[in-house]
């Protein structure tokens, strides 16, 4: 390609995209490259995968006023947008993870509840110390990523006093695990048996987050958890 052709190529743009109605999603950076995305629909398909949207993204909105973006060329470098399907734009404080919209919905321990449908978000600071977990009404699990023998398990703090919304827990796992295969659809024990509800989770146990693919039986614990017995109780990764 000639230097003139390179000069005429539109520059790539970096944008941050949020999930419509999700007050806890921190946003994902997506590169808008018009040489890669020939149509706006192709870009929306990439956004669907990038933010692990439960349904296909078909609309983008500005986060403050909900103005619809109709064309690829309308996207501005460094700006923020909200991705939605065919549902209406839901006004939240996306730029601050929507938490200002949740007045009166946070309990005294570690669960935040939103009327938008995302009912579970662990608050790590209140349950960080395992020695005080019982006093706080919290317990911990550790979660591996299916088929991943390079990444250590991440901590999953849960509340004993608040009923666990299983679909919302899977949404939280999707965000934290960031599986290559997409959304987390099930949680398995290390022997591959599937967990069907929050009441089956055991304090201090290890689990594997799995997407649409089959569970991959690998030596997660043996390879990714330190050999020191004190560390094997719980393995925290900031």
Automatic annotation (TrEMBL):
Pfam families, sorted: DCX (PF03607)
PROSITE patterns reported in the protein's UniProt record: DC
Keyword check for 4Fe-4S: no
GO biological process: intracellular signal transduction
InterPro entries (UniProt xref): Doublecortin_dom, Doublecortin_dom_sf
Keyword set includes Repeat: yes
Chain ranges of the Doublecortin domain: 13-95, 143-221
Coiled coil: none
Gene Ontology terms: cellular component: microtubule; microtubule organizing center
Keywords (A to Z) from UniProt: Repeat
PANTHER family xrefs: DOUBLECORTIN DOMAIN CONTAINING 2 (PTHR23004), DOUBLECORTIN DOMAIN-CONTAINING PROTEIN 2B (PTHR23004:SF10)
Protein name per UniProt: Doublecortin domain-containing protein 2B
